[in-house]
């Protein structure tokens, strides 16, 4: 039976964590962190061939443990689980206080978006982050051209070549992280056609397959990591059980 939200029922608050990574871990530190993980997470991390990617993924896997430790929840009282669509959540025996979350990592940051509430309200959460920096091997305009198949004509109009490179990059990563956070919130696989999603930022509207996206909330913010640069991040969450 579908849930009908009462007028007094509030949406779960969205929370975000952004962690800046400095030096690489020592072998002992990496091994010690690995031992904290559950068997499934352990196997996933040890199968990542790139040490840098493995470290960022490991930190992302550790954040839920830190979250539950701060909530003073005994380790035996909760478990990391996934929905049938692969969406991660923390189950600690109360369906009304499920913790839904999503992880992202880019360059030297790892981020987490989460919310606490009934399962159906916290599963559809996504977060994405990108460092705002020019590509090393091509111009900004060529970089945008390489992504033209993932952008709509309207979105391309926001990236006019006459604009400064800084403005174009910032706008591009806003568009990109919004699309990523939406598909991650849905649990869509890598390869989802981003051209199906159109972000009309000036009119605060998102369309999917030409239809307005309803019942969703998106929050945009920047994470300044000092000498490591600036990062554009976006959280997306389905609200009230509406929309796609």
Automatic annotation (TrEMBL):
Any one biological process term the GO annotation gives: lysine biosynthetic process via aminoadipic acid
The species is Rhizoctonia solani
Looking at the record, the residues that make up the 4'-phosphopantetheinyl transferase N-terminal domain are 25-114
Q: Is Ribosomal protein a UniProt keyword of this protein?
A: no
Question: Could you cite one Gene Ontology molecular function of this protein?
Answer: magnesium ion binding
InterPro entries (UniProt xref): 4-PPantetheinyl_Trfase_dom (IPR008278), 4-PPantetheinyl_Trfase_dom_sf (IPR037143), AASDHPPT_N (IPR055066), P-Pant_transferase_sf (IPR050559)
GO cellular component, alphabetical, reads: cytosol
Query: What's in the keyword line of the UniProt record?
Result: Transferase
- Protein's name according to its UniProt entry: holo-[acyl-carrier-protein] synthase
């Amino acid at each position: 039976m579908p849930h009908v939200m009462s007028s007094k029922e509030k949406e779960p608050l969205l929370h975000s964590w952004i962690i800046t990574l400095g030096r690489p871990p020592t072998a002992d530190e990496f091994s010690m962190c690995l031992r904290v993980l559950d068997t499934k997470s352990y196997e996933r991390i040890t199968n990542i061939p790139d040490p840098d990617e493995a470290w960022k993924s490991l930190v992302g896997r550790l954040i839920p443990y830190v979250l539950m430790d701060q909530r003073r929840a005994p380790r035996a009282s909760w478990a990391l689980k996934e929905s049938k669509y692969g969406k991660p959540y923390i189950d600690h025996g109360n369906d009304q206080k499920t913790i839904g979350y999503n992880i992202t990592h880019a360059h030297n940051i790892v981020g987490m978006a989460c919310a606490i509430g009934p399962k159906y309200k916290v599963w559809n959460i996504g977060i994405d982050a990108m460092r705002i920096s020019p590509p090393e091997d091509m111009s900004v305009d060529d970089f945008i051209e390489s992504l033209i198949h993932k952008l709509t004509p309207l979105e391309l109009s926001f990236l006019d070549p006459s604009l400064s490179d800084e403005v174009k990059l910032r706008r591009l990563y806003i568009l990109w992280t919004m699309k990523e956070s939406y598909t991650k919130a849905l649990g869509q696989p890598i390869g989802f056609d981003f051209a199906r999603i159109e972000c009309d930022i000036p009119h605060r509207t998102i369309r999917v397959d030409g239809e307005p996206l309803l019942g969703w909330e998106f929050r945009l913010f920047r994470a300044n990591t000092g000498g490591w640069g600036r990062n554009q991040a976006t959280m997306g969450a389905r609200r009230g059980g509406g929309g796609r």
